[in-house]
Amino acid sequence: MTDRAGAAEFTGRSEHTITIQTSPKARADGSGWPAPVEGPDGGLLYPLDELAATIEGIAEAARARVHSITLDGDPDELISAVEFRGLIDATAGTWSKYVDMSKAAWERGEDGYLPRPDLEEPARTRGVTRSWARRRVETWINSRPGRSAGAGPRVRTEETGPTAAKYRRVAAAIRQDISKGALTSGQRLPSMNALSTQYDVSMSTIQRAIAELRSEGVLTRGSDGITVA
């Protein structure tokens, strides 16, 4: 059991949201959140196992919202980065983050967070212009789990800063390990205890970070534990 502040940290929601979602009215309307119980000092306590089940349900719903697009035209025709990011509704800043997360894999000749470009050329002014075959973009989007508003998890520019919530910093570190190839698809994550020690945070922080990454489709639960998707 935990108090309201602990429930807020565990689920990544505000205390106000916890109060609303666990209220009798919200639960009667189908919020799916557990009912609090009165603690020894009269305060309200929340069962961690039921909170975890609630977050799992949210994660499952997010994974169910997959993408399905059909790109008309020559499947081998190249499309630009601007066209690609438009298809996944990513801002220029978010796209730059996706590219940064992919570069290490691209340098190894592999797909990264984004598929490896089919063509890279020097830009007219500075930098590089990248293009992808239409068929590869379509396949990548349609096979990518994630939220209905885009083709992948949100990238937060503030998630690694000193004021970021602990679970966001842990989630960002795990994403970075994946982008660098230190964690690969299908690889099992270390145990909760090991991760708690590694990042010097509580078990509930690790659980929340994993719940967020699972909701984004970055991690998945298999028969032998949490693995990289």
TrEMBL record:
Annotated signal peptide: none
Q: Which UniProt keywords apply?
A: DNA-binding, Transcription, Transcription regulation
Region Disordered: start-end pairs = 1-34, 143-163
Q: Start and end of every HTH gntR-type domain?
A: 164-229
**Which InterPro entries is this protein grouped with?**
Bact_HTH_transcr_reg (IPR050679), Tscrpt_reg_HTH_GntR (IPR000524), WH-like_DNA-bd_sf (IPR036388), WH_DNA-bd_sf (IPR036390)
**Matching Gene3D superfamilies, A to Z?**
Winged helix-like DNA-binding domain superfamily/Winged helix DNA-binding domain (1.10.10.10)
Query: What is the protein's name according to its record?
Result: Winged helix-turn-helix transcriptional regulator
What species is given as this protein's source? Micromonospora parastrephiae
